[in-house]
Structures are given as structure tokens and as C-alpha cells.
Design a protein that fits this description.
four-stranded antiparallel beta sheet; globular; mainly beta
Length: 187
């Protein structure tokens, strides 16, 4: 083993120009994913515009295939140019995806930042929490291919913030998931 391999580990020791044994190919368009993140950027340069947004792979419809949820931002008030929402892509089981955002009840405009997926109500279906600049949103999976906004009902309403990430876990070990939300700065 060479000194470089010992210092960096064998996977990092490959000399520049060597074939890694695989190739990555961009299949986004061929897979049916048509998404462009909207940071809302215009001349002012606000802090949230410099951050990316989250995504999640989840089996929202219980068919055993992972679907894709992409979180989106939006245009700032007073600078509206386009309508942008979350995007949910259902796995077609053949290497392609279909946009089911509208049908799933997720065509909601918000300045989304992150996503945390868990079955918070123990009904067997993954639910979605979207962190945001403004109001975070909790979407309950109906188990019928759609979601309903239960933010207010869950006690999460009326809390405007700049939340970037969140985590579901059983803090008190009572068998029910608890929610931890990270706020970035006071906005």
C-alpha cells in the first residue's frame, strides 16, 4: 500500500485520470422530472435566497417504490413573477416519474426550506413537515394518494419563522413521534 493510500484510504488514492469503473449520466428530463428551484431572487439579495431547499424520497402511496418530493421557494411579496410550489413526483416503476403535486394536494405556495418525513400519527402512511420562511406546514397523508394540511390542527399554526430543518423522534419514549424544528435566524 502506498503512503497516499495509507493517509487517505484506498478509495481516495485513485490517481487523476483513472477510470473509476462507473459513469454518471443525467437522466432528469428522460425520467420526467421538470423542476426548477425558485429562490425568489431579484435585486435585493435576501439571505434565504443563498440557501438551497430540501428534498425527500418517500413511498407516499405505499406501492413499494420511492417517490420524490422537491421543496421550492417562491417570489418575494411585491416581486411576483411566477407561481411556484412543492413538487411531488410519483414513481412509475419504469425509471420515469409523473408530477402528481396537484392531485396530491401539495400545490401550496410557500418559501420552503427543508422537509422531514415520518408517520407522526402512527397510521402507516408517511406524513410531511415542510420548514419555511414564514409558516411551517404539516401535511397528513390520507392513505388515498393525497395529503391534507393539518398545520393548525396540530398546533403548529401562527408561528412565523425562518426554519431550515426539522427532525421527528420519540423524545419521551411514549411511542409517539415528537418534532424538533431548527430555526436559522430571527427573520
Amino acid at each position: 500500500m502506498t503512503r497516499r493510500e495509507l493517509l487517505l484510504g484506498a478509495p481516495f488514492a485513485m490517481a487523476a485520470g483513472n477510470d473509476p469503473g462507473f459513469r454518471l449520466t443525467n437522466v432528469t428530463a428522460a425520467a420526467g422530472i421538470d423542476f426548477q428551484h425558485n429562490s425568489g431572487a431579484f435585486d435585493a439579495k435576501y439571505l434565504p435566497e443563498t440557501l438551497g431547499s430540501g428534498c425527500a424520497f418517500l413511498d407516499y402511496d405505499g406501492d413499494g417504490w420511492l417517490d420524490i418530493l422537491l421543496v421550492n421557494g417562491m417570489d418575494w411579496p411585491g416581486h411576483k413573477k411566477r407561481h411556484s410550489t412543492l413538487r411531488l413526483y410519483r414513481n412509475n416503476r419504469n425509471g420515469t416519474f409523473s408530477d402528481v403535486t396537484q392531485r396530491a394536494g401539495l400545490a401550496v405556495e410557500m418559501y420552503g426550506m427543508g422537509v422531514a418525513v415520518a408517520d407522526y400519527d402512527n397510521d402507516g402512511f408517511p406524513d410531511i413537515l415542510i420548514t419555511a420562511v414564514g409558516q411551517n406546514r404539516l401535511f397528513k397523508n390520507t392513505g388515498k394518494g393525497s395529503f391534507i394540511d393539518v398545520t393548525e390542527k396540530a398546533g403548529l399554526g401562527g408561528r412565523s419563522s425562518f426554519s431550515t430543518s426539522a427532525m421527528w423522534f420519540d423524545f419521551d419514549r411514549d411511542g409517539h413521534l415528537d418534532l424538533f424544528v431548527c430555526n436559522y435566524v430571527k427573520w
